[in-house]
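Continuing the batch. This is chain 6 of the set; chains 1 through 5 are on the previous pages. Same settings as before, nothing changed between runs. Recording input and output for traceability.
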Amino acid sequence: MNERAVDHETTTASPRNTEGLRRRQIHQAAFEATLKEIFLAQQVQLVEPLAKASKETVVFGGLYHGEEVAVKIFAPAVDDIGDAVAAFGAFKVECEKTMILSRRSKAILQVIEYGDAELPLDLPEELAEFFPLKLLPFMITERAPFGSLDRVLKHRRALPGFDRISLLEALAAATDGIKEAHDHFVTHRDIKPQNILIFGPGLGKIADFGIARWRSRRSSKDVVLLTPKYASPEQAFWALTGEKESLVDTRGDVYSWAIMVYEVVTGTHPFAWAIKGIKDPLVSQRTLLKAIAANDRRGFVTTGDITFDSLTYNCTCDLKHRVADISLANRVLRQYIQRLRMQNQESDTLPVQAR
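Output for chain 6:
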């Protein structure tokens, strides 16, 4: 749960800020001060924002009974109270289901507690508008000391022990959590580096089931939540057309996972070419979704490693032929990691003259 870059943010097919969110951003300092005061009554000390606030949630780092934690708070900034009520139900289900899954697998970010914080009766009217439901549902989780995979990738040169192999190992560890979710018929639908949390070299967990398959919607006109850079072709097609949502299943998670693996190994995103030079974010997003929906493969460059290239292809090909079991894909990734580590060890033991 770390700060997200704009181009990685979970967003909608037609993103726009609500008037409520704009007003809250103007009064951000007062909003955050109010949150901190409210949560002291829950024995939670909110310290610092960990993620860019969305229309529905804010995430803070803090202390709970002396332990460093992350706190995800449902604070919708919407113009329609009906949207807030629908999102409220989805958030409560997310809390419950994530806690159940986290108890089944240590590879899923562990939920410590969830509940509802009540607003003080004497809350000024100008602040009360930021809390339309008159209560604050929250979820307290463990906090990853190194943040997300995305953050570690950017700063790994300054972090001892975080070479490419250790990051692949962390990703493989987190994938066990994705498999656990799939075994319980839960499709994550937002697999990306920002949702792989790093607890140490080789230690990763999957987080944020906020738009998983259990997500409820008010009507067929509702927006499509996804992260464009890591959307599967079927997700992208649904976002663009509103059709064939039934095709969005666990195989989409496999696709997004493979894009992430490809990035870690090669240092490039296979669809970067599609938005090169485009400045308008809305045009960029739609162009990216069109390229992904068509599964235009011009950006997938072969590395010459048969294992890795085969893994990439079989996890990102058309839906009919795509690997459906993420544990099978993860087994191949672990074999690849083991071979990379052996090659590194052999290189380290070679005499200087032979190098």
